[in-house]
Amino acid sequence: MINEFFPVFLNLKNKLCIVIGGGKVAERKVENLLTSQAKVKVISPEVTLKLKKLAEEGKIEWERRVYKKGDLHSAWLVIAATDNPEIQKEIFKEAEEKRIFCNVVDVPELCSFIVPSTIRRGLLTIAISTSGVSPAVARRLRETLEEIIGEEYVLYVELMKDLRKQILNLNLSSEEKEEKLQKLALAPIPRYIKYRDFELLKVLIEKEGLTFPTEIFEKHFPNIFSKENEK
């Protein structure tokens, strides 16, 4: 029977997350956890050069030994990246007893959560999952979407955040605000950004009674407007 997982994004900032294992898979898991500002501890007799460097820089804690029962004390989440089936079962059992989120890599039946294939574009995160039955399919879908949702979406989401704030501060009814938000969401803004049609985008934004946030664009394209004015 296939588990039906509940999709969720976790706030791991400053939370203790333990990774058991020190190979390339563990390395990827650690890097993702650090991106989420988690407090990371690695338990493994040996680790990759990158993990060793992170430990030397004080970015992670490394306990140079094998896992033993009790290691999950105070952990908020644990990832087991080890090929030892017996150790995997022991880790999952302890995690279940202590009600700690646990992921045993590539063993869905020993997981209380699974890690989706993700696309990150600044504030935008898209997660893809096949409930653990085919990571290869999830990866293929991710690669397809990465071609469609390019780097222009980093700026796009930042822009929409600013415009939404402006709209919510307007002296309009809730219906009118929602209408403006939907109109902008349906506009081809990502395409304007991709092809740098900033003047056209400026007209679109100002037509809605909003201020074009030049500083956001300057952050991504330094001096872009001053160069255009020189033409």
UniProtKB/TrEMBL annotation:
Keyword NAD attributed: yes
Residue ranges of domain Siroheme synthase central in the record: 121-147
Listed InterPro entries: Met8-like (IPR028161), NAD(P)-bd_dom_sf (IPR036291), SirC_C (IPR042518), Sirohaem_synthase_central (IPR028281), Sirohaem_synthase_N (IPR006367)
Record's keyword annotation contains Oxidoreductase: yes
Enzyme class: oxidoreductase
MF (Gene Ontology): ferrochelatase activity; precorrin-2 dehydrogenase activity
GO BP term, pick one: siroheme biosynthetic process
Biochemical pathway: Porphyrin-containing compound metabolism; siroheme biosynthesis; sirohydrochlorin from precorrin-2: step 1/1
Top-rank taxon: Bacteria
Gene3D superfamilies, alphabetized: NAD(P)-binding Rossmann-like Domain, SirC, precorrin-2 dehydrogenase, C-terminal helical domain-like
EC number(s) recorded for this UniProt protein: 1.3.1.76
Catalytic reaction annotation: precorrin-2 + NAD(+) = sirohydrochlorin + NADH + 2 H(+)
Entry keywords, A to Z: NAD, Oxidoreductase, Porphyrin biosynthesis
PANTHER family per record: SIROHEME BIOSYNTHESIS PROTEIN MET8 (PTHR35330:SF1)
Name used for this protein in its record: precorrin-2 dehydrogenase
Lineage start: Bacteria, Pseudomonadati, Thermodesulfobacteriota, Thermodesulfobacteria, Thermodesulfobacteriales
